[in-house]
Specification:
This protein is an alpha/beta fold. The protein has 2 domains: 4-182, Rossmann fold (3-Layer(aba) Sandwich); 193-400, Rossmann fold (3-Layer(aba) Sandwich), CATH 3.40.50.10300. The protein has 14 helices and 19 strands. The chain has helices at 22-34, 47-50, 53-60, 78-85, 96-103, 110-117, 130-134, 136-147, 173-182, 218-229, 257-268, 310-315, 333-343, 384-401, and strands at 11-16, 38-43, 88-94, 122-126, 151-152, 156-159, 165-169, 193-198, 203-206, 209-211, 233-238, 250-253, 273-276, 283-285, 304-306, 322-329, 348-353, 365-372, 375-383. The strands form 5 sheets. It has an 8-stranded mixed beta sheet with strand order 12-11-8-13-16-17-18-19, sandwiched between helices. Strand 9 and strand 10 form a beta hairpin. The relative contact order is 0.10. The chain binds ligand PMT. Ligand PMT is lined by residues 197, 199, 215-220, 257, 276-280, 282, 307, 309-311, 325-328, 340, 352, 354, 360-362.
Length: 402
């Protein structure tokens, strides 16, 4: 039984091409949204002859995209933004012409360009006259797409809008929604207890001031969500961030590094996997003034003392969980990250470059190099949500090898 819960907060890009079955896509959007997915619709020119973009805009609550060169898109590259945004690309209905152009590697309209540019899984639901479906050219094109990893749903057999009977009907929306949900049902960490830290810490100087850093918590929250999706029981220890709590996990809010350390020590005993994504301050002010510090001389010295290293403490426990740390570096990324793997005695380090625009701190995208004792893997730049899922899959694989 497929749970539609898997669709919550998923970004589904629905491509609609020009066939009579396009009217069913409106119901498809409604059902995907009802299951909690965020849907953005891309229409080909022919599709707009069958159904108006406004219908999809009203049902999805998002603007509909129709043109490859979109001045509204940031940097004018709508296809790249949408390709990165999507967790899954669904084309329904997919006409014989769209399938042919996709199989030929074309990128001369928005939908086919997205199909070229996305790293997300693709599912297409063909709909056409039964003779067009049976045509050897169509069958060759479908086979080529399947070899490339594009998934196929249908078509079904039955009476067709053209009056003929045979294979070529688009799969019903409810069934397509289930197939989309099934793509997210990984169960890689079913029932595994996972403890995750996220966000920055605030180290108080006086009642109104603190030391902190630029972490937004986005990476840690994405990892927590990916762990839930993988079936884990997740506890998320969060520093001060302005993010909504993902569904189906327990969140504990903390402020300082000391508080975070105390909560982690309390929670870690029953944990099988610990992921330290938080940017914990290495130092805190030695003394915290009870009253607001008043302006005085031109120079003032703030004495700092080391905070506990939460990650190293967890890894040093007598029977530690599988322990994943992060390394945020502005230079010598590989060298420093590999050093942390050894120094902190953790099972895996996820290294990311920080201090550059677009990735790392407070960005929506990131890129990681994962290091473990006898291996490494690069995860190319993509949304933190997608990256978190790939990270979780790699962690599950490494745990299974133990
Ligand atoms: O939150 P975002 O805006 O999405 O940004 C994500 C991120 C860049 C913060 C994240 O991807 C990241 O790199 N997190 C770790 C940041 C960090 O503190 O790195 P570090 O190299 O200083 O620390 C190494 C590891 O030790 C980290 O796992 C850290 O959580 C842990 N640590 C550090 C100090 C300390 N006192 N206790 C710890 O547990």
């Amino acid at each position: 039984m497929i749970s539609l819960r898997q669709l919550q907060n998923r970004n589904i890009l629905l491509g609609v091409t020009g066939g009579i079955a396009a009217y069913k896509s409106a119901e498809l959007v409604r059902q995907l949204c009802q299951a909690g997915a965020t849907v953005r619709v891309v229409m080909t020119e022919a599709a707009q002859q069958f159904i108006a973009p406004l219908t999809f805009q009203a049902l999805s609550g998002n603007p509909v995209s129709t043109t490859l060169l979109d001045p509204q898109a940031e940097a004018g590259m709508g296809h790249i933004e949408l390709a990165r945004w999507a967790d899954l690309v669904l084309v329904a209905p997919a006409t014989a012409d769209f399938i042919a152009r996709h199989a030929a590697g074309r990128a001369d309209d928005l939908l086919s360009a997205i199909c070229r540019a996305t790293a997300a899984p693709q599912l297409i639901a063909p709909a056409m006259n039964q003779q067009m479906w049976r045509n050897p050219a169509t069958q060759e094109n479908v086979a080529r797409l399947q070899q490339q990893g594009v998934m196929l749903s249908g078509p079904e057999s039955g009476s067709q809008a053209c009056g003929e009977v045979g294979p070529g009907r688009m799969v019903e929306p409810a069934q397509l929604v289930e197939q989309v949900a099934a793509q997210f049902q990984s169960g890689l960490l079913q029932g595994v207890r996972v403890l995750i830290t996220a966000g920055p810490t605030r180290e108080p100087i006086d009642p109104v001031r603190f030391l902190s850093n630029r972490s937004s918590g986005k990476m840690g929250f994405a990892i927590a969500q990916a762990a839930v999706e993988a079936g884990a029981e997740v506890t998320l220890v969060a520093g001060p961030v302005a993010l909504e709590t993902p569904d189906h996990l327990r969140r504990i809010d903390v402020e300082s590094g000391q508080e975070m350390a105390e909560v982690v020590v309390q929670e870690v005993a029953e944990t099988a996997l610990f992921i330290a994504t938080a940017a914990v301050a290495d130092y805190r002010p030695l003394e915290v003034a009870a009253e607001k510090i008043k302006k005085g001389s031109d120079e003032r010295v703030l004495r700092l003392i080391r905070n506990r290293d939460i990650l190293a403490e967890v890894a040093a426990r007598p029977s530690p969980p599988y322990t994943v740390g992060f390394a945020a570096e502005t230079e010598k990324l590989r060298e420093y990250a590999q050093q942390k793997l050894v120094d902190k005695k953790v099972d895996m380090i996820a290294a990311n470059r920080v201090g550059e625009a677009g990735t790392g701190f407070d960005a929506d995208d990131n890129a990681l190099i994962l290091f473990w004792a006898d291996g490494e893997r690069s995860l190319q730049r993509k949304s933190k949500r997608q990256l978190a899922r790939e990270l979780m899959a790699e962690i599950a694989q490494q745990i299974s090898k133990r």
